[in-house]
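Good morning C.,

I know you're traveling, so I'll keep this short. The sequence:
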Amino acid sequence: MYEELKAIVGEENVSKEPEELYIYSSDPGTMPPVKPDYVVMPKTTEEVQKIVLLANKHKVPVVPMGGALSLSGLVRPLRGGIVVDMKRMDRIIEVNERARYAVVEAGVSEGRLKAYLDKKYPSLRISTPDAPPIATVTANALIHGSGRLSQIYGFHSEMVTGMEVVLPTGEVCRVGSCSVSPYWFSRSPLPDLAGLFIGWFGRTGIVTKLGIKLFPKHRYRDVMIFVTENPSYVSDVIWKVAHTEMAEDITVWAQPKPEWAEGFQHTTIYVTADSEEELEFKEKIIRNALMDYIKQKEGGFLYLTPAMKAMFLQEPMSQLVRFADVRKGGGFEYVGAILPVDLFDVAYQRGLEIVERLGVDWAFSIRIIGRSHCMMFAYAYPFNRADEEDVERARKALHETNKAVLEMGGIPWKAEAPAQQLILESMDEGAKRLIKSVIEMLDPNGVMNPGNWEVK
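The tokens, ready to paste straight into the viewer:
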């Protein structure tokens, strides 16, 4: 099979060397490594198609990989086989300035598209996730990622306008307007087949091209931070700020509890405008919305120095990523739960119970999705990669947090294989049968990333 893969992608783009297979056996999270048999890096959709056809011929599993930064082991080859690294498919095919969308190949990174737009189309921007710039646009959208514009426009999956997919059988199809038109402007008004591929972690096909919405880039950006010691106020603070429709992005983060206070909740509010007067107006409306808390001395806005503002205005910028260096060994993973905003206090307290009982280091952060329609709530656990006991503690904390999320009525985001099973166990029986039917219909030979969303 190695020779057949070489014939498809060239000798320099396929490997079965132990050291390279080891690199592709895991990501930076806690899930134990699983080695593939081969790694290939295709350059075209036709090469991806040939790889999938070859996998069907030999009944070998195929696992597509973007930036491998999910932290939850989504690209581990759970049953061996071929990891298809998409990084060579890195063309930005089109930017339609007036219709505000871009078409990119699956290996295009968030950093590459952002830099391209900054240079060629300075009036346009993407919704940037708080992830390293090498995270790919396509993979982030397919796992329902979120970013700087999600408080206005929703999950990144909702920004997808179309896609080209290699199905598990080797067939190629297009979804959205691009299936009937040369333009990739929308998934509507056609039957929305994108749901067959978004959220499936590569289980139903390999997306090779993606259409993604672009948005206006405003001249001015500023950041405000509102602080309160009482977590029970946070959901109301979020609701009031979102209600003004003046904020571009709303996040919340916290530090471990100091001895002299209950703990600080920092609500970070990003504001954009095309003039200084507009920026001042928006910030005044936001301040007025929270004035009752200020008058009652239950919270207030932090003064930010220019250096602090510059740090918060970086894209990407994540408080959580810093925790990868808290413990020797550099390990880091988090549960990103999708929850109703009014469950903030309950989720915060449940998380504290878990970390205090297990004795793990922690941090948490949330991002508001939509106008407070829901939130991505992340409890993060750093760990020492060289200490298996420390890794196991973090793994246990993740598992218990995922269970708590489901008990509260939320859903774990980009769930690890064990968490996927927890979700399936909680799922409506009809939905489980539908998932099983979709997999059997699209992947009759069971070659596409088997193990993810496996209905037992």
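Safe travels,
E.
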